[in-house]
Design goal:
With 479 residues, this protein is α/β, with parallel strands linked by helices. It has helices at residues 21-36, 40-74, 111-118, 135-144, 148-151, 182-188, 224-234, 254-260, 265-287, 346-357, 449-457, 470-474, and strands at 91-97, 121-123, 158-159, 166-167, 193-196, 245-250, 294-299, 305-306, 312-314, 329-331, 335-338, 368-372, 391-395, 400-402, 413-414, 428-431, 439-441. The protein has 2 domains: 91-306 and 420-473, Alkaline Phosphatase, subunit A (3-Layer(aba) Sandwich), CATH 3.40.720.10; 310-408, Gyrase A, domain 2 (2-Layer Sandwich), CATH 3.30.1360.180. It starts with 20 loop residues before the first helix and ends in a 5-residue tail after the last helix. The structure holds 2-acetamido-2-deoxy-beta-D-glucopyranose (3 copies) and zinc ion. Pfam families: Phosphodiest (PF01663).
Length: 479
């Protein structure tokens, strides 16, 4: 669990809320004392109070001066957004590097990421994913600003509780995809969006028809270099035709992280390769004279944790307390999601499972805790959808759930755990005219990014779970 609450947006460090309140309190006390009793004693009191107030005010001003000069020097020279030199309007490129755990940037030399950090704004201790910390729920939260319960993609795979239809990661039927993703918000307001892959981008919704040349169909085999070139080509269009919002997606280093765990040299190599792709993007934008005009937002969807050392929990071990048939289990690990037939008591399932898990007789049983979904910690926001199965298990970082002991090779990496676990954090870096150079901000949840993008583009956001004031805490004010 990190130092900052993942549920509410933390204000930026240079927003001082407390420095003015003592002054306000002193002034109101002063006014009351003067008006209630105008005697001689009161005038002495009044003079002393005035003096105290003056001293306090000077101290407050001195403090504020020191504070703001310190804040502005740490944030570089800009106090307002920098003017565009070549582009006609603000443009955002939203980039995701899948499974880029916070801290991977220290594994190896990453000159391009370092450059974005040095001249941009970084979440100093990383970006907090939403629960469950899986690829589809998180990518879609980033572009809708909604928790999975509200955008509908509650897992990478799930069943519709009414029809029994299965959602899979290749499904583009709009009935599954709720909320309003950024490409739709952008096109609603008469502007252009382009997606070089993103979760949900191929779904036709409202004004977004997934137009050819703008909405690229997901193809894992397209080399990363080509994806970067696809983005760069948009900047060769006539100025008024350049999409204002673009997405760019890389499967790495998630792919390697799963296979060999986060500490393997293969992950280090994958990180270096992502960095070189960012280098290709930066130099392409520089060549076109637009690098300093474009807002680049670099994020990941979640982190990664090693799962070796037989950190396993077997559901069959619970048989003396309760037998859980395979058919009840809709998702197993790290998110254990159970939908029993309707006539079975949910609280009884939960209490029997927990009794077994806590008995000391089930291997690693104390690493898994079962909940009726409404009783999950509210910070997880994981109950307000019928698609979420009614019984959910929270498993500790690095542990996995299996139905039975199968002696399967278990060593590798996983994600999907509680979003307060530090290893599930990913990166946030913003670079461009509206981001202060060299600024660090506290960690925040990825549902804030939707409002951040609409604020940069100066368009009207759809209702979402980010806070309306968040963009002001992180962006430079417009000049
Ligand atoms: C940061 O931006 C300044 C101003 O454009 C530039 O001179 C400097 O080289 C940049 N630093 C890095 C590390 O790119
Ligand atoms: C996917 O991309 C590869 C590499 O560019 C290409 O050869 C292949 O035809 C593409 N597949 C589809 C279905 O478009
Ligand atoms: C999230 O946003 C949805 C849609 O606006 C809203 O119905 C829901 O109450 C919000 N939930 C939270 C926790 O903010
Ligand atoms: Zn993954």
């Amino acid at each position: 669990m990190g130092p900052d609450s993942p549920a509410k947006p933390t204000p930026a460090p240079d927003q001082e809320e407390n420095s003015s309140s003592p002054t306000t309190a002193l002034l109101s006390f002063d006014t009351d004392a003067y008006s209630s009793n105008p005697s001689h004693k009161t005038s002495i009191l009044f003079i002393s109070l005035t003096l105290i107030t003056c001293i306090a005010l000077s101290a407050a001003f001195a403090f504020a001066f020191l504070f703001f000069s310190a804040a502005s020097s740490s944030a570089g020279v800009d106090s307002t957004a920098r003017a565009l030199t070549k582009l006609k309007r603000p443009v955002v490129i939203l980039i995701s590097s899948d499974g880029f755990r916070f801290g991977y940037q220290f594994k190896t030399s990453t000159p391009n990421i370092d450059r974005l950090i040095a001249n941009g704004t970084e979440a100093e201790r990383g970006l907090i994913p939403v629960f469950p910390t899986l690829t589809f729920p998180n990518h879609y939260s980033i572009v809708t600003g909604l928790y999975p319960a509200h955008h509908g993609i509650i897992n990478n795979y799930f069943l519709d509780p009414v029809t029994g239809d299965a959602f899979t990661m290749a499904n583009h039927d709009s009935k599954w995809w709720l909320g309003e993703p950024l490409w739709e918000t952008v096109t609603n307001q008469g502007l252009g969006a382009a997606t070089v892959f993103w979760v949900g981008a191929e779904v036709k919704k409202g004004s977004w028809s997934c137009p050819v040349n703008l909405c690229h169909h997901y193809n894992q085999s397209v080399p990363f270099e080509e994806r970067v070139d696809m983005i760069l080509q948009y900047f060769d269009l006539p100025s008024e035709e350049i999409p204002v919002f673009m997405t760019l997606y890389f499967e790495d280093p998630d792919h390697q992280g799963h296979k060999v765990g986060p500490d393997d040299p293969q992950v280090t190599e994958a990180v270096a390769r992502i960095d070189s792709m960012l280098g290709k993007l930066i130099s392409g934008l520089e060549k076109r004279g637009v690098f300093e005009d474009v807002n680049i937002i670099l994020v990941g969807d979640h982190g990664m944790v090693g799962t070796c050392d037989k950190k396993l929990i077997f559901i069959e071990d619970l048989a003396p307390w309760i037998v859980i048939p395979d058919s009840w289990v809709q998702s197993r690990t790290p998110l254990l999601a159970i939908r029993p037939p309707p006539d079975i008591s949910l609280s009884e399932i939960v209490s029997k499972m927990n009794e077994g898990l806590q008995s000391g007789k089930v291997k690693n049983g104390n690493r898994l805790k079962m909940y009726v979904k409404e009783e999950l910690p509210s910070r997880l926001h994981y109950s307000a959808s019928d698609r979420i199965p009614p019984v959910i298990g929270l498993v500790e970082e690095g542990f996995k759930v299996e139905m039975k002991n199968s002696k399967r090779q278990e060593c590798g990496g996983a994600h999907g755990y509680d979003n307060s676990v530090f290893s599930m954090r990913t990166i946030f870096i913003g670079h461009g005219p509206q981001f202060a150079r060299g600024r660090k901000v506290p960690s925040f949840e990825n549902v804030q990014i939707y409002n951040l993008v609409t604020s940069i583009l100066n368009i009207k956001p759809a209702p979402n779970n980010g806070s309306a004031s968040f963009p002001q805490s992180i962006l430079l004010p417009s000049s």
